Amino acid sequence: MSLPHYWRTPLCLAPRPLHPWLTERGSLTAMLMAHFPDITVRVLFQGWQKAHQDEADILGPKSHIACREVLLQSGQTPLVYAHSITSGSALRKGFHLFGRTGSRPLGALLFADPTIRRSGLSWCCIDQCHPLWKKAHAAVGKLPKKLWARRSVFYAGHDKLLVTEVFLPALCQYTLA
């Protein structure tokens, strides 16, 4: 996986309460469900769009990608903005269920299939210039100037699905016991 340098930020720079969330190798949704009541997935967008530059570097030079953007929330409190993308050919092959996930957690699909592999996690602090900060802001309103995010690629054979999760203020304030 080719990542821009800023997606290789040392974990020690992230706030300590975020470390367990940033480093969880299993389903983030399952982890959220274990700590928050009433976790729901609110679909913000599902369709085709142009890849952001740092995404195109990972998926290759494709002009348009299949995209799914959701908020993971507890009740009405948004906790995570998630942005997942894949190519059109991957929609027809390894990730054919991606387009039909609806309001179900994507992790339920990814972690239920033992043939799907996951890359290592990477993380960074995104600011107001990053397109995903802007999308999270459009979805939830007022945000701090910087947000922590993590990213990984899921593989179904040669097909790739890039998942980026942006951690929102309500989650950043929660400390795991």
Would you give an account of this structure?
With 177 residues, the chain is of the alpha+beta class. It has seven helices and seven strands. The protein has helices at residues 19-23, 28-35, 53-59, 88-92, 106-110, 131-140, 169-172; strands spanning 39-50, 64-74, 77-86, 117-118, 122-127, 146-156, 159-167. Strands 1, 2, 3, 4, 5, 6 and 7 form a seven-stranded antiparallel sheet that branches. The longest helix has 10 residues, at 131-140. The chain is globular and about 40 Å long. The mean pLDDT is 88.
> In total, how many domains does the architecture comprise?
1
Beta strands, count: 7
H-E string: HHEHEEHHEEHEEH
Roughly what percent helix?
A: 10-25%
The Rg value, from CA coordinates, equals 15 Å
CATH architecture classification:
3-Layer(aba) Sandwich
How large is the share of residues in beta strands? 25-35%
Secondary structure tally, helices: 7
